[in-house]
Amino acid sequence: MNFQQLITFLEVAKRRHFRKAAEHLRLTQPAVSAQIRGLEEELGVPLIQRNPFALTPAGKAFIPYAKQILALTEEGKRAALDSGNSLPEEVTVAISSGVALPILSRLLKYFRQEHPRARITIRTKKRSELIRGLREGEVDVGIVCGIPESRHIRSRVIHYDTLTLVAPADHPVARVPYFPLERLADIPLLSLSADTEEQQLISRLLGARGIDPPVAVELRSVEEILRMVTLGFGPALVPKLALQGAENSGIREVRIAGLEVQWPVTLVVPLQRILSPGFRQLMDDICGIYPSEPEE
């Protein structure tokens, strides 16, 4: 078994076509077929049914292992290159929501000043896609809200965040110094989509207190919510971290009495990753840009 066989197998499985895989890999179709046959002979089972095309049960089962072998090989190369105390030259960071953007802005500023040669790629993914990207080697570091339960990752808390109520400056909610928690059930709120982890956390926190605010509009990101609040569309509950560095003219922040709850913003990395000194330094730098202890 060699790496090219694995690469070819994954490309054929992805495109579900020998010729299209051959074109993408810049190989002849006979060469692709020969590599697949060689891999099947070594494993002792058929991986692909030819006519019509279909992955066999063995082929479906082998895909995650082929991806992991290639990911670990690439990781080994990086570990060898990063065996000193220098930081990795290329890092892919994925965020699961807009709440991580203030953290990433600080991180990117740090790298520009201290490690200008490091190339940082930022991707936005759904939480499930982010965890899968870590597992399959597509993502080096993730930043998520809460602590994901997954046996494939390890996590470190970056920061503890709180909820705050924001409203247009001319809205009645903005005229009071604090807002009673129970009154949230009476006002329509701008809300994140129900499939975002922030909104799931907010719903759990409020639901535990018997509060289910009406939803005025559902939006995809915290940034969209803040923009809509600025335009006067109504109040919203948002993570306090999202207000840092944002243009908040026209917005009033109102303290919610009775909702002094904090949750972690977390750094996640693949569990199987070998943590070289350079990569450990990267993790320490990310975790150091905000205090991780809950505020009193």
UniProtKB/TrEMBL annotation:
<dbReference type="InterPro" id="IPR000847">
    <property type="entry name" value="LysR_HTH_N"/>
</dbReference>
<dbReference type="GO" id="GO:0005829">
    <property type="term" value="C:cytosol"/>
</dbReference>
<dbReference type="InterPro" id="IPR050950">
    <property type="entry name" value="HTH-type_LysR_regulators"/>
</dbReference>
<dbReference type="InterPro" id="IPR005119">
    <property type="entry name" value="LysR_subst-bd"/>
</dbReference>
<dbReference type="Pfam" id="PF03466">
    <property type="entry name" value="LysR_substrate"/>
</dbReference>
<feature type="domain" description="HTH lysR-type">
    <location>
        <begin position="1"/>
        <end position="58"/>
    </location>
</feature>
<protein>
    <submittedName>
        <fullName>DNA-binding transcriptional regulator, LysR family</fullName>
    </submittedName>
</protein>
<dbReference type="InterPro" id="IPR036388">
    <property type="entry name" value="WH-like_DNA-bd_sf"/>
</dbReference>
<dbReference type="GO" id="GO:0003700">
    <property type="term" value="F:DNA-binding transcription factor activity"/>
</dbReference>
<keyword id="KW-0805">Transcription regulation</keyword>
<dbReference type="InterPro" id="IPR036390">
    <property type="entry name" value="WH_DNA-bd_sf"/>
</dbReference>
<keyword id="KW-0238">DNA-binding</keyword>
<dbReference type="Pfam" id="PF00126">
    <property type="entry name" value="HTH_1"/>
</dbReference>
<keyword id="KW-0804">Transcription</keyword>
<comment type="similarity">
    <text>Belongs to the LysR transcriptional regulatory family.</text>
</comment>
<dbReference type="GO" id="GO:0003677">
    <property type="term" value="F:DNA binding"/>
</dbReference>
